């Protein structure tokens, strides 16, 4: 969990993934045969086949499996540095503004990180009237207060600097809780499934192209471009998915259940998973005694959609981690589901012919 904790607390919003990328590049040393960073900033790490694919496979060109885990998290860029020293922000990725009151934030400037407080402007609760108290602020109403003189703020902070919410990573019961588990759990899963393969001396007939993508939260941008480079035969997007199983949520809208196993996304708002790949994942899971659950996400998409539509089209599927309170800073993932996803991904890669 130490790696997941570091991934969860390293800031990286769309287009500002540098710190997360540096962390991943260090962690994957020795796991791959070739590692490169593409022009947009996605990491493409290739591990060559270590076994023959069998009689019907041309060993000179093994099946290319692309794994996509996005590195970026939802966050903000500084939009305006006020003459009063307060910052205004522009969101990169979809926030629920109801989660954005009274938050500590980090402003990453060229000269170093500054802590700040994020709050809507206007009156405190003691002075607000009944109507004002009901109002949920828009993101344009939010201010970052750095507690510094205006001149100092203006000298150090620039438009475009990254702003992220500050939140520790914590184990809560049988779960991991923190921010941007969407999608650092997937970065963790790719690294840990590869480590498992190496540690167990397991072989794989496919060529693994592990891609840590950029800018997913603003439209799957890194997945689309990196899939054009990789030209995979099979694309597997790995991401979190909704787990709406808390009191007050109708059973038919659960999407997934926490602790119910690795989620196999039949379809979401942007892609329909290849049914043969769904069958492969279920067969591999059954053989390994790994718990899975099927799910359909009505709205929203993942990198899978970007890979599926790249070039002449790719067979693609999504492996998902059930996550409660998604897109808040207390995203919650059950450790059993996380381990089920890791074991399933490792077993699947060993199974591809
Ligand atoms: Zn995601």
Task: Provide key terms for this protein.
alpha+beta; 353 residues; six-stranded antiparallel β-sheet; globular; binds zinc ion; Aminopeptidase; Elongation Factor Tu (Ef-tu), domain 3
Helix and strand arrangement:
Blueprint: H1 2-8, H2 18-27, E1 34-37, E2 43-47, E3 64-70, E4 75-81, E5 87-92, E6 103-109, E7 112-120, H3 130-134, E8 142-145, H4 150-156, E9 162-165, E10 170-172, E11 175-178, H5 181-199, E12 207-213, H6 221-230, E13 234-242, E14 262-267, H7 275-288, E15 292-296, H8 303-308, E16 315-323, E17 331-334, H9 335-351
Parallel strand pairs: 3-12, 3-13, 13-16, 14-15
Antiparallel strand pairs: 1-2, 2-12, 4-5, 4-9, 6-7, 6-9, 7-8, 10-11, 11-17, 14-16
The structure holds zinc ion (ZN).
Residues 70, 182-183, 216, 239-240 line the site of zinc ion.
Walkthrough of the structure:
There is one protein chain. The protein folds into 2 domains: 245 residues, Zn peptidases (Aminopeptidase), CATH 3.40.630.10; 91 residues, Peptidase M42, domain 2 (Elongation Factor Tu (Ef-tu), domain 3, Beta Barrel). It contains 9 helices and 17 strands. Strand 1 and strand 2 form a beta hairpin. Helix 5 packs across helix 9 and helix 7 packs across helix 9. The radius of gyration is 21 Å and the shape is globular. The protein binds zinc ion. The site of zinc ion has 6 residues, from helix 5 and strand 13.
- Tell me, what is the CATH class of the largest domain? Alpha Beta
Total domains, how many?
Answer: 2
Can you list the ligands bound to this structure? zinc ion
In CATH, the architecture of the largest domain is: 3-Layer(aba) Sandwich
Q: Please outline the major beta sheet.
A: 8 strands, mixed
Helix content: 25-40%
Alpha-beta classification: alpha+beta
Order of strands across the main sheet: 1-2-12-3-13-16-14-15
How many strands? 17
């Amino acid at each position: 969990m130490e790696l997941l904790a570091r991934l969860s607390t390293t800031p990286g919003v769309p287009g500002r993934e540098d710190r997360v990328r540096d962390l991943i590049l260090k962690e994957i040393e020795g796991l791959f045969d070739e590692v490169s960073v593409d022009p947009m900033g996605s990491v493409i790490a290739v591990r060559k086949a270590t076994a023959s694919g069998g009689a019907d496979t041309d060993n000179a060109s093994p099946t290319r499996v692309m794994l996509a885990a996005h590195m970026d998290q939802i966050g903000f860029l500084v939009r305006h540095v006020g003459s009063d020293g307060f910052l205004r922000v522009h969101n990169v990725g979809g926030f629920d503004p109801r989660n954005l009151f009274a938050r500590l934030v980090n402003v990453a400037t060229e000269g170093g990180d500054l802590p700040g407080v994020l709050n809507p402007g206007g009156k405190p609760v003691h002075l607000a009237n009944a109507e004002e108290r009901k109002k949920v602020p828009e993101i344009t109403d939010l201010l970052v207060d750095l507690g510094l003189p205006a001149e100092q703020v203006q000298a150090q902070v620039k438009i475009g600097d990254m702003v992220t919410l500050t939140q520790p990573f914590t184990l809560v019961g049988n779960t991991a809780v923190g921010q941007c588990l969407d999608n650092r759990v997937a970065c963790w899963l790719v690294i840990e499934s590869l480590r498992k393969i190496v540690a167990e001396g397991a072989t794989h007939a496919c060529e693994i192209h592990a891609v840590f993508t950029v800018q997913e939260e603003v439209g799957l941008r890194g997945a689309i471009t990196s899939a054009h480079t990789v030209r995979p035969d099979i694309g597997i997007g790995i991401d979190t998915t909704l787990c709406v199983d808390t009191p007050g949520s109708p059973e038919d809208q659960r999407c997934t259940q926490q602790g119910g196993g690795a989620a196999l996304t039949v379809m979401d708002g942007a892609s329909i998973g290849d049914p043969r790949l769904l069958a492969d994942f279920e067969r591999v899971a059954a053989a390994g005694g790994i718990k899975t659950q099927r799910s359909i996400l009505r709205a929203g998409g993942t990198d899978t959609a970007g890979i599926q539509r790249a070039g002449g089209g790719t067979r693609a599927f999504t492996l998902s981690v059930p996550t409660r309170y998604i897109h808040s800073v207390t995203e919650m993932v059950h450790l059993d589901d996380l381990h089920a996803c890791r074991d399933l991904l490792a077993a699947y890669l060993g199974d591809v012919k």
